[in-house]
Amino acid sequence: MQESTRSPQSSTAPSVWVHRFLPLIKPGGLVLDLAAGSGRHVRLLRDCGFAVCAVDRDTTALLAFAGPYCEVRRIDLETNDRGQLGDHYDGIIVTNYLHRPLLPAIACALAPGGVLIYETFARGNERFGRPRNPDFLLRPGELLEAFTTLTVVAFEQGEVSGPRPAVIQRLAAVLGPVGPLPEAVDLDILRSTG
Fold it and tell me: What is the CATH number of the domain that holds 95?
């Protein structure tokens, strides 16, 4: 069951973590935005020239993005067949969503060289607000454990202060060998434009 959450970055601006590791995804590649919500990453992905498959159980906000470079799929990720996700994605973006039985299907949906960018809430976040339910909070190092078949490019876990306090866990990983790292993102510039 999904629990309403607000992003560690903001509810409308793309995640700084996603923005930072987006250059690892093959230019013009097909990217799955899993539990796409309002479409904040769909917009970013399309603006960067990617083809997008946006999946959520409520596609109301996503329908505005539907078109030749964006397929919108209404899937309840917690009750439907995981095979509906598709496969051979050059990138998969997951933010503010956790359904543990889906984690193996996410790894299997990547194409060789595909990039997973994942960011969600972790244990300790209950001190700051929603989500508080442990079912929706990652255990320490859980993303590392869940995606052992991938090569980790970057991993972080801990407390963030802005734009609101939260405890999060973040992973950027690739199905294959590590390549060049993207340039560091200037967080002040992103926050002022987001």
Answer: 3.40.50.150
Give the pairing type, strands 51-56 and 30-34.
parallel
Side chain identity, residue 150: L
Rounded Cα distance between 55 and 35, Å, is 6
Give the domain extent around 169: 16-193
Total domains, the chain: 1
Under 8 Å between Cβ of 131 and 125 = yes
Q: Which value, to the nearest 10 degrees, does the dihedral of the CA atoms of residues 111, 114, 119, 124 take?
A: 80
Q: Is the pLDDT of residue 2 over 50?
A: no
10: in domain: no
Residue 97, SS3?
coil
pTM exceeds 0.70: yes
pLDDT in tens, 73-104: 999 988 876 677 889 999 999 999 999 999 99
User: Does residue 131 have a cis bond before it (omega within 30 degrees)?
Assistant: yes
7 falls within a domain = no
